[in-house]
Amino acid sequence: VQLQASGGGLVQAGGSLRLSCAASGRIFRDHAIGWFRQAPGKEREFVAIMGRAGIYTDYADSVKGRFTVSRDNAKSTVYLQMNSLKLEDTAVYYCHVVVGYVAYWGQGTQVTVSS
Question: What distances in angstroms separate CA 29 from CA 22, 47, 84, 114, one per listed residue?
Answer without folding.
Answer: 12, 21, 30, 36
